[in-house]
Amino acid sequence: MITEIAQITIDPAQAQAFEHAVAQASDIFRAAAGCRGMRLERMIEDPAKYTLRIQWDSVEDHMVTFRNSEGFQAWRALASPFFVAAPIVEHSREVLHGF
Amino acid sequence: MITEIAQITIDPAQAQAFEHAVAQASDIFRAAAGCRGMRLERMIEDPAKYTLRIQWDSVEDHMVTFRNSEGFQAWRALASPFFVAAPIVEHSREVLHGF
Predict the structure, then answer these.
(1) Which of A59, A91, A95 lies closest to B19 in CB terms?
(2) For chain A, which residues make up each domain, given as ranges?
(3) pLDDT tens, residue by residue, B1-19
(4) What is the pTM of this model?
(5) Does ipTM exceed 0.90?
(6) What pLDDT sits at residue B84?
(7) B2-92 is classed CATH 3.50.30.10
(8) Given an 8 Å threshold on Cβ–Cβ distance, is B98 in contact with A43?
(9) B95 vs A contacts (CB less than 8 Å)
(10) Which residues contact B79 (CB under 8 A, 6 or more apart)?
């Protein structure tokens, strides 16, 4: 399993509406092939910044299968009106689960 | 609970030794006041980059209590020889647990 890490910047005045839109989108990710979990975190030092963490079975499940699906179009329709910059998207793999 | 997110860059040729050092340090964090969990993730697109995620009861537990403790000195003695840049440290709070 890998984690998509998307750094998203919005207008903090829109925070409540953005968080509501992401909550609405959880059904899209729940239905996506290979998607195993989804969390949204807000950065404390800069409340315009969020980190969306989505677990996928593989990078391909995210970058190929999901990005070419209707689910991606629906997700972007919900979320992208809030973006004030292009999201920065990376992927990670857990190498140590300390405790 | 909040999460410390530390972005760490190392020489990827030192990856195995760095991961071993972080594993050794897990006892330091386990013993730290207010510390609730620790994970290390390696970035897939850039294997020189790691994200260390540490759960704390509060930002103060990390930035004040831990940073002024002997545990911090022990942690930095283990890990900082691997750093090729100053770690970027932020904190986040989970605002949505989708699934």
Answers:
(1) A95
(2) 2-92
(3) 999 999 999 999 999 999 9
(4) 0.96
(5) yes
(6) 98
(7) no
(8) no
(9) 19, 40-42, 50
(10) B8, B18, B21, B22, B25
